[in-house]
Amino acid sequence: GDFTKTTGWMDWYTGPSRPAFQLPAGAVDAHCHVFGPGAEFPYAPERKYTPCDASKHELYALRDHLGFARNVVVQATCHGADNRAMVDALVHSGGKARGVATVRRSVTDDEIQAMHDAGVRGVRFNFVKRLVDFTPKDELLEIASRIARWGWHVVIYFEAVDLPELWDFFTALPTTIVVDHMGRPDVSQPVDGPEFELFLKFMRQHPNVWSKVSCPERLSVTGPKALDGERHAYVDVIPFARRVVEEFPDRVLWGTDWPHPNLKDHMPDDGLLVDFIPHIATTPELQQQLLVDNPMRLYWPEEQR
Ligand SMILES: O=C(O)/C=C(\C=C(/O)C(=O)O)C(=O)O
Description:
alpha/beta; eight-stranded parallel β-sheet; 12 helices; 35% helix; binds (1E,3Z)-4-hydroxybuta-1,3-diene-1,2,4-tricarboxylic acid
């Protein structure tokens, strides 16, 4: 719409296709966002981008259209530490959504408890410089120690080049850690090259570290290249995501990342993103772990069979 003219970002894809891949029963979209609506939930003054509105109603309609049963709604930087839009989405999900919040050291125990009661189960620490300003590590460690009392985990979003300098901080975190989008590897490098080897070492040496194998559209250099005639195959991302799924099958999650903020050159069809899953989780057992067992164990442990 005319929105893209104002900020240069693209609106999310209207009219996504229905996936050819049949999601397993109870599948969880473990990384998605709600944005505003800005009139009801204003965007944070300190934000580094202004997204188009993307409501809980549209998120849950997409969930049903794609065949997911549940969502994990992740606080995005455009809302800063104002978690109201995300919490509103949880309380209107009928128990089918959990959340990950952004908090500052000033957050009170009552505020954490209220978010827990709404379905929040983690906090997010963002280190991507184009998205956030620097937060002192002592503040983040203090937050991580506090939220551990509620059994929450820490979601981290960083770029692969920054992993060496963040290594000591990450390995000191006292909680389960979930890495967004495999730590954004440079997929033009060899999958067995030093950069990705460091990320795999991070997961190998620290069994509390999980990873989302999502966002091929953000990582791909080749773009949505056709693979056997399929669009959105992002062939250069497949070796990286497969490696993580096959080496750590019980510590991986997947998400659409709808509504896909900050994409400039193409907007993925969410139905085709779902069809990418069998390329990275190549057996029904791996798909069950990635899409159902792992997210249920982390976000709905009380419902574990
Ligand atoms: O949605 C994502 O996970 C990726 C991005 C944005 C955010 O996570 C955010 O603003 O919180 C990005 O790479 O721009």
